[in-house]
Every structure is written in C-alpha cells, then in structure tokens.
Amino acid sequence: MEKTSLRLLNIAVVGHTNTGKTSLIRTMLRSAEFGEIEDAAGTTRHVEQATISAGDFPVLNLHDTPGLEDTHALYAHLKKMGEKSRSVSPVKILEEFVANVSMHDPLEQEAKVVRQVLRSDILLYVIDVREPFLEKYRIELEILTRSSKPIIPVFNFIAGHKQELDHWREQLAAYNIHATLEFDTVAFTFEAEKRLYQKIQTLVEAYYDPLQKLIDYRAKVWNQLCLSGAKRIAELIVSVACYRESKNAKQVHVAESLNEDRLHDYVRSVEQSCLKDLLTIFNFSEKDIAIQKIPVSNGQWQLDIFAPGILKAYGLDVGSAAAKGAAAGAGIDLMVGGLSLGAASALGALAGAGWSTFKRYGDEIKASVRGTQWLCVDENTLQVLYLRQKKLLEKLMHRGHAAHDTMKVDTPEKTQLPDGWSGLIGTLRQNPAWHESSTSRNNNKQFLEIESKLIAAILRNEAAAQQ
What we know:
The protein is of the alpha/beta class. The chain is built from 17 helices and 11 strands.
C-alpha cells in the first residue's frame, strides 16, 4: 500500500467521566468551540469527531467518547458473555456486545465507547491525576486492553500534583503500561503536544511520515504564533516611544493639560489594541484574562496604565511623572551636546547644520525657534507597557483552550528589560516618524535592529524553557 493511499488515522479519546477528554481535544485543536465542558459528569453523551490537518493535508481524526460510567456492570456483562463462549477471543466478545446491545439498554453509553474503540487505531486514555487509583480505573483498563488497540495513558491536571502523578505511574507500571504522557490541558506546553504525536508514531509506524509532517507543520505554526505575539508587543513599544504631543512654551495650563490627556488617551488606546490582537493571535477572548487580578471588561484593561500605584507595583520609580519624558526635541538636544535649545541656540544650529542634518532635524529646529516643545511618554510607563504585555504573552503561550477559569496576569517577579533598554528608547524618541508603520521605517536598518532586539528579549524566557 502506498503511503498516499492511507486512510486517516483514527484516535479514540477515552476514559472515565470528567477526566478532561473534551478538554484534551480542545487544546489540540486550539479552539474552545469543540464539544461541551462542564463540571457535571457525563457531559459528552455521543461520540464527536474532529480532524487535525497539516495545512491542507488531513492526518488524523480525534473521536471524543462519552465517559465510562458503569464499568462494573460492563465488566460483569462481558465476563458472563466470555463464560458462555470460552473459545471466543476478547475482541470478538466486545464486537458481539456492541452488535447486540439495544437502544435503551442500561449499557448503551458504554457500548458507544466500545464501538468507537474497536473502530480506532489507537486509544488516548485520559487520566485526572488528582483522582486516586480506584477499582473503576483498573476495570476500565482491563476492558480497553481487550480491544488489542495500542493505549497511551495521558496524565491531565498535573500542575502542582507531582506526588499523585508518581503514584499513577507506579500503578500503571504494575499493569505493564509504561508509555505514558504528561499533557496538561490547562497548563499547556507545545512540547507536550509534540511528544504526544511522537509517541503515536512509535505505536502506529505505518503513519510515521504523515505524523512527522503534522509535527513539523504544527511546530512551524506555533513558532509563528509566538513570533507574531512578540512582534506585536515590539510594535506597541515602538509606537508609544516614538509618539509625541507638541506644545508651545507659552501655552496656558489648561491647554497643556489637554495635551497630556491626549497623550494618555493615545497610550491607553494602543495598549487596548495590542491586548485584543494578542488574544486574537492565540484564539482567546477577553473572558479568558484578568490583569493584575482585576478583570478585563469588554476587552479593556481595568487597571489603567496611568493609575496611581501601578509604577510602584512594578518596582519602578514612583517619583517620575508619567508623560513628562523627553521635551524640546530629544534629537536636537543630542545634536548640540545636550544644551538647552533657546531660539539663539536653534538659529546657530540651523546656520551651521549640513544639508543631511537639516533634512533630518529641520522641522524640529524650526519648531524650537517658535518655542515648540514635545511631550513624550516617560520611560517608567514604557517599562510597565513592556513588562505586563510580555507577561500576558507568556500566559497565553501556556494556556490550554480547555481552561475556563479567568487567567491572572500578575506583576512579574522579575522586571528584566532588554539589554540596552534606555538606549533603545532614546533612539526611538529621536525618530517620531516611526510611531506608525511605513515602507521607509520597515526597511530602515536601525529600526530593524531595535525591533529584533525587542522580539528576542520578549521570547528569551520561552526559548530557555524549551532547551
């Protein structure tokens, strides 16, 4: 048989009620739309199917089965059937059972599971490690092994339950089951998903190549998702650092306050946009997130970037006033050695500047002559933007789509900034035209270097965790 003629691999997701079978499939699909999830037992009443593809190339079908609710009765029934036909193999007894069960039989639910097990190539047996290894689980494994299908026990809800996980491993080893897998559907890692496909490869070698194609494709897509998230945060930092509100030195207090309000509103709006984009990239919604332990409402941060106490919460200098950063043209200050630019200084600079310098700073020199200054967002505010968006991205990268609790994005334990942070921000402030994307900006070598450094810093912890 040619590899291209292989039918799709069929995988049955089985286990006791409420162990996370539907949750596993949701996480593998990267979608919260599949099936229903509730705390009540027996939520899934029928077998549901989902297909996973490598791009346009379908590879496997996942079958979500109802929970095995009355394993004692099923085991007793199968044992009775076996006593009547001692020469019949266990698989044949299972086939006979599903062929003769009636629609209103008390074991109809179990028959749905067994029927799908017999139709599948491999079984993922989902285990909630928080549960003790009870008799019902031993019986379930006994029944499933009669199907002669490869079984991979999948340990779910493992975060914070190492002792329980070790106990489950010991119990399964007693049944000669060693090819287990840790896959937390709430505390997700891509490496766990990758290992799942690799374990399936070893058990159904005929599908090795299609599964490898799937692994490579999913890895590429995952890396692109993470890169897109980091790039979006970098774009936020660039746009805010480059943004200016102009003011005249003779402006009255009311007008000056309005300028500051406009700058604050700009920062709030672009951060909201970044939040929504990050959620969209990873296929989540505002219902999934809480920032600083304060919920997001309609996609809006409830903890204002300029709220009292936020700088202190991030361990930053509370004496610095937000939005009072670089003034009077940072680039010109740099050009004349940091001297204050009064009108005389500006005229002298204008007279002595070469054409290239005038072309770059001409508008700022002329504005300074007229007494214009600029308000920029200060460095502390930029640090808060960077740190909490980076923390949000890390949370999204490790959140399974089965999770239905509100995710907390707390203050980072370490306020580590990119190397040369102040220099990066200083350069951005000197290039106000970069606050919006353009062909000129996106092809600028200096801009690309800054963007690359920001992205590398944002993804640094994730890369280290995977090594």
